[in-house]
Amino acid sequence: MAAQTRERILDTSLAAFGLRGYDSTSLDELAAELGITKQAILYHFSSKEHLLTATIELAVKELGSALGGASKSQARGFQRIEDLVRATFSLAARRPEVLGLVRLVSRQGGSASGALASAMSAMLGDAVRFVEREMVAGRFRRLEPRMLLLAVYSAVIGVATEPEVMRALGLEPDLRSLVKARRETIEFLRAALIAD
Amino acid sequence: MAAQTRERILDTSLAAFGLRGYDSTSLDELAAELGITKQAILYHFSSKEHLLTATIELAVKELGSALGGASKSQARGFQRIEDLVRATFSLAARRPEVLGLVRLVSRQGGSASGALASAMSAMLGDAVRFVEREMVAGRFRRLEPRMLLLAVYSAVIGVATEPEVMRALGLEPDLRSLVKARRETIEFLRAALIAD
DNA sequence: TCTTAGACTTACCATTTGGTAAGTTATCTG
DNA sequence: CAGATAACTTACCAAATGGTAAGTCTAAGA
Q1: Which residues of chain A (43-82) touch nucleic strand D at CB < 7 A?
Q2: Is the dihedral of CA B27, B28, B33, B35 positive or negative?
Q3: Which of A29-43, B2-16, B119-133 has the highest mean pLDDT?
């Protein structure tokens, strides 16, 4: 039961921080959820901020293993974008808290966010180069690559993690709707990216 | 100094809740920022939750007056979308906290969010009908209207309110970049929406 | 001038929060 | 078996938090 506790804490923290937020989650709540005492958490992570740092590291790993395949694929043109969007939606359905934490950190910045920030920087850098190549090759419409990616990133993350807005639109955020949202997002991006 | 205090509290709360979040903002901080005591806040708003409700109401008003013109315009086709996006970016530059609060509420939901939720519901309902008409008229590409709007909403709000991601892309979130982002977002949406 | 009401402030308070200190228990090692 | 070490728990604690109660000051009305 020993070495597992650390991972259980990280798992629970990821869910709590990613879905409810950092300040909204107290160590006491986390401990109660885990059936241990708060001090057990502080034994493994010397402060709440260190716990956040470690949680972010876990999220970076999960993000890497979920999107790594698609982002490093050798697919060309729109197929590669489609792979990435599919992988992102799959992650949003399986572990919404991971994308929630990405959003949280990307908004707040903060000192603990170094790992995620640099991981994202790397992924976005690759993406920029990929998009530029495709534009040069004439497979993508010519737009400013970084702004384009920001729009694509925002659209995908937003669609995948904005259940309340879906409700406001009269859509239930269940699995079927998510599948539909994925399909429509891909069509939307295809239309935006591919020059006729 | 009397009647103004209430509005000053609301202004400061809007900035704090919208940019830092609800749980991350304490009444003591707000009071210190305003140069009054916490109890002065509680005199005007009987609890922190009531303050949030009133703050949301203010945000709804600001949102309405900022986007109302564009959203009720009689412009047709893509021009109307462009007007709306311009108005949104203008709001993002002038009062980022308003969109921040919209995002916060649209994520967390909660009991206090009724006003904003219904305001957004109404705006989105109008938007759905507008998009449907334009599709029928053949001016917009045929996509699922609600999903399309979710993607558009996410892209615009994301681009307008995601400074950390802009930094990760190597863009400084200053006014010039925001103008550029607006132009690129409009081009992106034009490409996605208009069938050739 | 006396009173009343509004707009606060000073003084508290119970609870929650992140964190420390000092045990306790089990396992592993010499 | 002795003792060290890892993995906790029990017992605290100071600061911060949302909120209550009572007092103060000022301006307006009777």
Answers
A1: 43-44
A2: positive
A3: A29-43
Q: Do A165 and B120 touch (CB under 8 A)?
A: yes
In CATH, what number does B59-193 get? 1.10.357.10
Domain range list for chain B: 59-193
Residue A28: CB less than 7 A from any atom in strand C: yes
Distance from C-alpha of A160 to C-alpha of A178, rounded to nearest angstrom? 7
User: By the 8 A CB rule, do A101 and A92 touch?
Assistant: no
Cross-chain Cβ contact B157/A155 below 8 Å:
no
What gap in Å lies between CA A101 and CA A53, rounded to an integer? 11
Spelled out in words, what is the top-level CATH class assigned to the domain A2-193? mainly alpha
Residues of chain B (2-31) having a beta carbon less than 7 angstroms from strand C = 2-3, 5-6
**B20: nearest Cα among A173, A21, A35:** A21
Distance CA A26, CA A17 (A): 10
Beta-carbon separation of A154 and B154 below 8 A: yes
Nearest Cα of chain A lies from the Cα of B3 at a distance, in angstroms, of: 33
**Residue pointed to by tokens 């009724």:** B114
SS3 state at B195 = coil
Contact by Cβ (8 Å): A167, A173: yes
Q: Do A158 and B158 touch (CB under 8 A)?
A: yes
Asked if the model's pLDDT at residue A196 lies above 70, the reply is no
Going by C-alpha positions, the residue among B66, B67, B51, B68 that lies closest to residue B14 is B51
Which tens digit of pLDDT belongs to each residue from A148-166? Answer: 888 888 888 888 788 778 8
What is the identity of the amino acid at A141? R
Residue closest to sugar C1' of C21 by CA? A39
